[in-house]
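To close the chapter, one final illustration. This time we ask the reader to focus less on the individual chains and more on the assembly as a whole: which components sit near each other, and how the overall shape emerges from the parts.
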Amino acid sequence: MTWRGEALLGLVVLLAGLWLAFLAIPQEIRVAASQTNEISPAFFPRIVAWLFVLIGGGHAIFHVLQRPSAAAGAEPKKRLPGGLHALAALAIGAAYATLLPRLGFLPATVLGLAALTFYLGGGSIWRAVLFAIPFAVLLQELFARLLGTPLPRAGWWG
Amino acid sequence: MDQVFAGLALFADWHALLAMVVGTILGIVVGAIPGIGPAQLIPISLPLTFAMQPVPALLFLLGEFVGGIYGGSITAILVNTPGTPASVATTFDGYPLARQGKAGKALKMALFGSVVGDLVATTVLILLAERLARLSLEFGPAELTAVIVLSLTLVVAVAGRSLAKGLMAATFGALLAVIGTDSITGTPRLIFGVMPLLSGIGLVPMIMGLFAVSEILLLAEDRPLTRMGAALDLRRESAENRRLSLGELWRTRGALARGSAVGVVIGIIPGLGASVAAMLGYGLARRYSRTPEAFGQGSLEGVAAPEAANNAETSGALLPFIVLGIPGSSLVAMLGGAFLVHGMEPGPLLFQAHGDKMYAVYFGLYAVNFVMLAFGLGCMGLFHYIVKVPRDILLAAVFVLSVVGTYAIEASLTDVWVMLIFGLIGYVMRRMDVPTAPLLIAFLLVPQLEHSLRQALLISGGSLAIFAERPIAVGILLATVAWLAYRLYRGRVSVRA
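The assembled structure is written out below.
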């Protein structure tokens, strides 16, 4: 990571700590007046919040102080296309999770598996489908029959 | 003694034996596939074990755990690509041996090294665990707090390249652990009106997301994914080159002993992991070898030592976990999840509450090695097929198994979304060089840490002096500070260099 990225990471952690300490913990954890530190439910979360502040602040300051001079050369470029592939794979996974309760387990799994195999492999769609159908049936048999696990059923026409 | 026999009966049940055999074989096969390994296999297998009795479930996962580490050596030897990070050192001499047409010999050496290392570590575990557990019953809340702080510090300090990032990950894990209902006062904490969070964040969806899904996302960056490089076909080797003679095995005894010893010690220290053990084992074997010049050229000692070390580390790492409930690595933390799901809380009371099951686990840890030996020797000729599994199909299958497995826990799609969110979190963390292991280990340890800390403060009336009044706690906390100071100093020196 570049020094800017590192400093930004530190800053985000520092701000998260401050948000926790001054906003989230006072609002989201009710502490009775009689609850001293050792029995207060907010005691440990406060320690966590201040650790965030310390670590994030320290990390940001360290990387700002250690930044290379302009003469030291350009910083490495980011690998955005790789990140986009990962996000696309996650989007397929999210679409699969969305379709599960609507289409039911078997159709959604065939679609999800075929889409993911096709996207990751970049080969033929028929190869992906030929793998997806038997594997989805195998999973259904394994989970529903052998292990007795309830699988999502179709909400639209099930 | 009754518990030993009860444990033997639990172990000898056919469900337990079958689960152990299937788990071990799965572990070896998946461990041999580069890109995925026990860190992905154990999370997706966890839900499968929910329907099992505790002993078969634990033996299934322990088989995957131990077999997976050995499996990593197969591709390290056949295609110079370690199946798991723990097998990196095995490539140094394993692949040169394979290039000389001695892949069969190297695979057998790796197999025997793994078995010897694991048997030694299991014996140490059995000899020490119950005694240390009894000793640790003397620990009060102050000592327990100090031990957990030390363990977390050790894990954080060695988990990644940056101490600060390890601390960030552990603190994030601590934050996630406090979400839900406070165990002492029953007050909801940081749930932001989301009622399912009252019971806290689910361990299994988190593990699946952080380790299985994030790995798939990282590998997806390099799409289109192809098969691995061509593996060497063992069937084309001469019988002489495939054979590992007793004389050759005897000549590696020093490397095996040193590798096993290093592995056990590294395993007991939280955070260091199997890859460190393998590297140290390799280094020691080379230093004390009569033929150090052969290392890197295809030395059998160079295969034996790291394989003994990485497998000894896996069983050694179970010691602090069983005795104190402290998982020293993410893999042991995942096993911790399985222990908890089956109502077995690791720690000093484990033997009192579940002695019979623990003895069954011990029998299983020994028996796993015989399964490894039988499968390894019997199916060695088929190993090059494992390498040929298309990675796109494999990753798609792992992804769908993660989703189905997570859903199966409580028939809840919320868990699936939690898993996907943690997949994204894990991916971003790894892209930013923030290690994920401290997050998981802190998530598991922090509830115990918070409980002990608040108990200690209740006893002392809110005074931190309780930690200064207990000699063991003082010693452990001083060791923690010294270790942190050393790491900070080393960090400054390396930055200046």
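Helices of chain A lie at 3-28, 43-65, 80-103, 105-121, 125-146. Chain A touches chain B through 71 residues (CB under 8 Å). With these observations in hand, you are ready for the problems at the end of the chapter.
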